[in-house]
Structure prediction request, 1640 residues.
Amino acid sequence: MTWDKIAVLFLQLLWTVHRVTAIHRHDIYPYGMLYGDVALQEGDDETSKVITLTKPMYFYEASFTNLYVATNGIISTQDLPMEKQYVDDGFPTDFPVIAPFLADIDTSKGKGSIFYRQTESPTVLKRAEADVKRGFPDATFTPTHAFIATWENVSAYEEVTRSSRPSNRVNTFQVVLAYNEKDTYALFLYPEDGLQFFGTRPKESYNVEIELPARVGFTRGELSYFFFSRTEGPYYSVTSNEQSVKNLYQKGNIGEPGVWLFHVGNRYSFQNVVPAQHEVVSTKAPPVLVAVFSDEDYTEEEYPIDPDFQDPTTTEFLEPEQDSSLLERLNQEAPLGQSPLQPSVSGPGEFPQPDPRNLPPEDVTQPQRPLPKHAILQVYPNRVKDVPPHNSGGQVFSVEERVNFESGVIHYSTDNKETCERFQQQCSQNAHCTDYPTGFCCHCNSGFYGNGRHCLPNGAPHRVNGKVRGTVLVGGTVVQLDSIDLHAYIVVGDGRAYTAISEVPEPVGWALMPVAPIGGLFGWLFALELPNSLNGFSITGAEFTRRADVTFYPGNQRLSIVQTATGLDTQNYLNVDTHLQGSVPFIPPGATVQMEPFKDTYQYYPSLITSSSVREFTVVSAEKGTETLTFQVRQNITYRDCTHGHRRGLETQELRMERIFVMYVKEERILRYAITNKIGPLGAGETEPENVNPCYSGNHDCDTTAQCVPGEGQLFSCQCATGYSGDGRNCYDVDECAEGLSSCGAHSHCVNLPGSHRCQCEGGFEFGFDGRTCQDVDECRDQPCHAQALCSNVPGSFHCQCQPGYHGDGFQCHPQNGRPKTQCEQHRDSLQSRNDGVPRVGAFIPECDEEGQYRPQQCHGSTGHCWCVDSRGQERAGTRTPPGTPRINCDEPVYPGRPKTQCEQHRDSLQSGNDGVPRVGAFIPECDEEGQYRPQQCHGSTGHCWCVDSRGQERAGTRTPPGTPRINCDEPGRPKTQCEQHRDSLQNGNDGVPRVGAFIPQCDEEGQYRPQQCHGSTGHCWCVDSRGQERAGTRTPPGTPRINCDEPGRPKTQCEQHRDGLQNGNDGVPRVGAFIPECDEEGQYRPQQCHGSTGHCWCVDSRGQERAGTRTPPGTLRINCDEPGRLKTQCEQHRDSLQSRNGDVPRVGAFIPECDEEGQYRPQQCHGSTGHCWCVDSRGQERAGTRTPPGTPRINCDESGHPKTQCEQHRDSLQSRKDGVPLAGAFIPQCDEEGQYRPQQCHGSTGHCWCVDSRGQERAGTRTPPGTPRINCDEPVIVPPTQRPETVCERWRASLLQQYAGQPDSRHYLPQCDSSGEFNPVQCYGDSSYCWCVDRNGREVPGTRSHDAVKPACIPTVAPPTMRPLPRPDVTPPPAGTSLLYAQGQQIGVLPLNGTQMDKQRSSVLLALHGSIVVGIDYDCRERKVYWTDLAGRTISRASLEPGSESEIIINTALTSPEGLAVDVARRRLFWVDSTPDKIETANLDGSDRRVLFDTDLVNPRAIIVDSPTGTLYWTDWNREAPKIESSSVDGQNRRVLVQDGIGLPNALAYDSTTRQVCWADAGTKRLECISPNGTGRRVVHSNLNYPFSMVSFANHYYYTDWRRDGVVALSRDNQSTDEYLPDQRSHLYGITVAPPHCL
Prediction:
């Protein structure tokens, strides 16, 4: 061989080494039926059914929710025309297309297959993310969804003739669309040998020997131009001739031949497709030279941990370094003999970047998921191996699937096996322990959930407490968070989690609003569990560590969140500490943050849970308007898993956050998050809403302390949570301690908790090794006695005794012949050994030196305060220091600095409480330069101000509320008396808020105590002396004659009070047949007592308590009460322990068991307070089914009877509600002889009848109104067919579609129908803003047509279909106090107010109105009735707020579209608007005397209000051509236009009685404005509303319903605070009004 040939061969070999192998078929993304793909029907021109994306995808600048896959190598966002309209034409097409290989393809007769699927598989998404990173290194992209379509071995269309044979050439190619909420990327993959034909022949010109090359690229399709014109949209073409098609598998643009990547869509701005810019060329390399590209060139861990996750201060994500030498070799490569790819205007570039990493295919079945390589999961604390810990702790793992390795964390042998016998105490008291071959596991008992180590009752609400610490950088400001409080409340029954962080300073309070993941942890922990799923607490229990890394875009701020759960506290609440470190974007003060619902996928591994997601939020501020930002959250949760038992089958779950509300309250410095959460398998919860069981949709009426138990279809039942009792709709805490249900043992006492209880050891005892048994504490181990004393341990305590030759109390011993005790020693010893020899807990004990003198510095052992004293032990003024501060040197004089004044001491003691932390919300006094109280003091939290005297005492009559002029405190006024100080201190508690239910003393004109005082809440009255002290024996219960407090008399003894209280019952009448005790001359109990009615006699002690075993029946010899009796029985001990608890005072309202003469439990027991009775066994345990409510016949406990059935319990609970009186007008079910529901039920008040099933549920279609024949309930009911006929809207739409040949554009109008086939109330041309309102028949409502961006506020006129089961149709009254009433379609809701704050926890449904659309609503405060308009029923109705009241129709004729409604309380008149005939009418409150006020010059009247004091009527007309607000007198006189300029959609109207202005909320201008009735003083209150519909004014707040948020929004008049309430059932809210307890 010659040297030149050798050189050529060497060059060829060298060239081959530098070539890159093309992608193989097995390396494309996994596909096929095994992976859940759908196969397209075989054929020449087939199109898939519409594929509805789970999340919208951006293509170019537009968002699309539908995709279609076609045979001919394309994907479109709309249904495709016939192939002849595009397959043989050039590029671009006139409709949107993603074309990996557009040609005339044929799959008929088995010639290939086409597969497609949506996926959220973490494996696919992580691979797509890596591919995008290769092509766009600077992009920050984390896909949340992907769509994969694969054409496998498909053929070109061929017209086979006798002279020609079919070709065997087939093509295989794939497209992957990866996207998130912001971006979309497309991957085209052409495997090696995947393209065997490069074009197809046109069908119409088949005899002509031409072939059209395949078209590859993207086109946006035609776009609307002006209104009736179309223009060609942007497009991007990759191929132009046959060679460019061949280049598809020979080249690539992300470093691998056959792989092409393009950026094809963006939410914000997108001009055209952008290709990746790294071209690479392929040839087939000899196998022997493949080893040149060894693993050394591509050193990369299989599961890389992002390096900058190890340091939360890093502000950018780090990328692994490139192998520069390899890059240089490839960049120097020349394409010998290769034709470069010829793209269109902007094709792929020519910069190669190799990356031969092959990711594993998508996994289908994995019986058990292994841990990621870097997760070393030991018991706490959790740390990552070889990574030094830092202040935020831990790392966030990036976890892939299909990893197989041994974790090697824990090994077990029979020698060190842990068993239940040895370690059962590690389980919860509500769990059981199970032994397994390698160890034990804890499992929660039935009725509880958790991981076994920690268990909580099913369905019960839960609370979380903790602290938040850390450093957060906001803009250029560093904010330190020092142990501020975090509290969360979770309604577990429907997954609502409310989180509040207090004392959050600005600006971090505003900036942390988007960081909902702080509160999102609690949403995941206690999410509502869909079928086959578990929430977080069921897996982790109460001990875990959650680490999250949040990255904000576009600013790349990074925030690390570490949340550590440390168990359950003594109240059974979860403790979670939160640490924040990093930076967050600056958010302007006063801004609002909105977050849309989203889903997050959680991956589960042994002892590790991970997730990663991208979320979007919108910031609305006056400075910047509306901004949309995003952040990425990557998190892991490590916990202690039990590896011995059966493994859970969880791999992935999907957390759905359906409602997210965030808010920062500047005045209170509170940051709030509210999130509604559900967890289930991937894709769960996608069912149509009408098919979702109410337990999973949240549309049930179970109590917050109850669990909703789903049944078949829409059926469900409510079951009170463990530890609660009731019917499920109303549940009450069971006091396990009072009912004797606790598990507490000896030397412990029971403490009741909500839904549970805990056992607490008595003093001197502590829990033993098992955590449950109380054992004596050997205090002598700590040598508490003096060195010359002996210590003796006794159960629960100890004794110290000085040794012989010494005297003292044992804590201090002195020689017998020594000096006498000094004053200090006497002071000390008197406190250390009080009357009973037990030191006073928490008392200050002075310290004496060796000489017995007071030490110069004294400290309080409990509080930590220290101070200096003189030789007499008196504190030296100005020397006291709180705990944690430097102490004063008591050997130095305090001067020249003066001692602290009283004001300064008062102020400093509050500013640094017991633990050195200021008391949140407490009043801090203000001192002047001399240290004296300033004459005027103000409460920083409540805003109240008042004048004080020189001692800081409030001067009577000087307090002013916030926002009112303050009093001049320099003017004289008499000082407060003791009574006034007492009264004012209770009226203004520690935080300035009166104590609810507290006794407030009454003072006379001189400020002295009135001789007689009465408790406003309980009604008791008594006499007092001049100091306000109660005079013994003068107290009288409510309803009895009061004592004349001007007459003297000795106080009554206990016996006399007992006797007189029974002789004068609540109403002053003696209780018939009651036992009356007998008192002697001194007022003491006589030793022997007898019952005047029964004749029984017994002995009592000095307290009147019966002595056990002394009772004798009538006619028998009485016992000599001076002799002792027998031992108490169990019943007598039970009774006496409850009758004399806590200082011998019986527990008010507690159940006291009754014992017979032998001391045994009487067979029938009754609760003296509630009136319930039941039968018990010999142990006093209740016999099931024997309980009867008060006022009903009692069961004969000597007979064996069956327990009550469900029907009987239902009936009896309604017949005896509240003091034994049946609910008036309520439906009472009828039961047969067996206690079962009768097949036919009738309402005694309304006359309606219906059939029921065995559970009492109404059978559909069986209800008959009064006066009509009843249905035979023994015959089957014919249910109408489920398939309904086409509606008018659907028929009209179908005919127009046919007229437009199935391709309507924006010039064409298509009726929009809802899911029931009815016309949508808003109709528009295409996707334009040219919209109008229609009625139920599709007719346009005049005056509603507009071209604005804000669509008209149209109200539906057809009620939605009725959901089952039906709630009760009667009134559930609101709680006491002021409430908001709001209309929400088929119901009226109640939202109580606490002051002006919305009490969201107590919201409820006032009245369910099926088949209605309630729009207008108002309240009559005199008769406590609510009035409303029903747009669907075309009626006006009312209902009383009394329990069980039902609605009453007062007007049902000549109404078309009744909307706004107003009640004139003073004149007893009703006003309303009817928007279709355009008129305003009035009538009496019962519907009589009806007449028309106005029927001219009205187009779209909506809101109407009346100012009763002035007799003025106001209403809005939202005519889109000329909107206006008008007014007139209530009799229709003096009509005039009040506002007509600068308004758009004035939906809401209210009268502010404080400012005496008319206010309106405009959905068009987005403003809330007010104006005086004379047309002057117009002002803007708020300029950034969403879509208000109705509004009411109360106190200093406006409350309006919002269509954008589907909730109630509260706004203060000074625009300083806002709040929001979102009902669980999300739908439009209409009218709103306020219902005060009395007329204002």
User: Anything to note?
Assistant: Residues 3-17 form the longest helix (15 residues). The longest strand covers residues 477-491. The two ends are 113 Å apart (CA to CA).
